[in-house]
Design brief:
Layout (H helix, E strand, L loop, with lengths): L1 E4 L2 H23 L2 E5 L6 H8 L14 E5 L1 E3 L9 H8 L21 H16 L8 E4 L24 E2 L2 E2 L4 E6 L1 H4 L4 E6 L5 H9 L15 E7 H4 L3
Parallel strand pairs: 1-10, 2-3, 2-5, 5-9, 9-10
Antiparallel strand pairs: 4-8, 6-8, 7-8
Helix pairs in contact: 1-2
The structure holds 6-phosphogluconic acid.
């Protein structure tokens, strides 16, 4: 499903409404809600809205029943400016009544990225009690090169069929990343791409309308819903 929202704020509001609905539904049905947060800059506005006491979302969210994970993380310590955990913590998690034990950040301070990935895989399995976890909500972004999470074009991790979390080397960043793999992403109950800004127009068109060649196009939930939430600038089909 595709939703086009007029502005970045409207995009964040629509995403917040989806987060509230999915979190309440999961807690009512199963007592807990598992969500993977995306990184980069686009989700920041959403996180701030969810935590804002002057907005209608914060008080509707069962914060203490939510398990937070990350779709991917940079190979940096949690206090590093590039840390996806740090961004989410400053924008939201440090401002809402989450149970600290339910905030499952990637142990990305581990100099051995592979070890960090394997540890995170264990955390996912132990927390969900599932060998192939079905996360209730997975947030993803889209890079101008068609990458999502840290699944970059031309990297071997795209062909991973067993691991849930991997530590690919990303040449252009001369760094490892820790990322959820396609088997885990495609097992999500609700997988949502949040995409904002005119710089994404070209890749959005190619990913949504073009031949399959980008990592983001390999995100096809087996049982769950796939939702593309874009702002008008990212869509701009006139
Ligand atoms: C990351 C992300 C990455 C991101 C896209 C879009 O760690 O960088 O998880 O996949 O979602 O690069 O980033 P922007 O939202 O900043 O455009």
């Amino acid at each position: 499903m595709l939703r086009i929202l007029a502005t970045p704020k409207d995009l964040a509001i629509a995403a917040a409404e989806h987060f509230v609905a999915r979190s309440r539904e999961a807690v009512e049905q199963r007592g807990s809600f598992t969500v993977a947060l995306s990184g980069g800059s686009t989700p920041k506005l959403l996180f701030e809205l969810l935590a804002d006491p002057n907005q209608p979302f914060r008080d509707q969210i069962p914060w203490s029943n939510i398990h937070f994970f990350w779709s991917d993380e940079r190979h940096v310590p949690p206090d590093h400016p590039d840390s996806n955990y740090r961004m989410a913590s400053e924008a939201m998690l440090s401002r809402v009544p989450v149970a600290e034990k339910n905030v499952h950040r990637v142990p990305s301070e581990n100099p051995d990225a592979e070890k960090a990935a394997r540890e995170y895989e264990q955390t996912l399995i132990e927390t969900t009690h599932q060998s192939l976890p079905q996360l209730d909500l997975i947030l993803l972004g889209l890079g101008p090169d068609g990458h999502t999470a840290s699944l970059f074009p031309g990297t071997d991790v795209l062909h991973e069929t067993k691991r849930l979390v991997a530590a690919p080397w990303v040449e252009k960043f001369q760094s490892y990343r820790i990322t959820m793999t396609l088997p885990l992403l495609n097992n999500g109950a609700s997988v949502v791409f949040l995409v904002s800004g005119a710089e994404k127009t070209k890749i959005v068109k190619e990913v949504l309308e073009g031949p399959e060649k980008y990592p983001a196009q390999a995100v096809k939930p087996t049982h769950g819903e796939l939702l593309w939430m874009l702002d008008k600038a990212a869509w701009s089909h006139g």
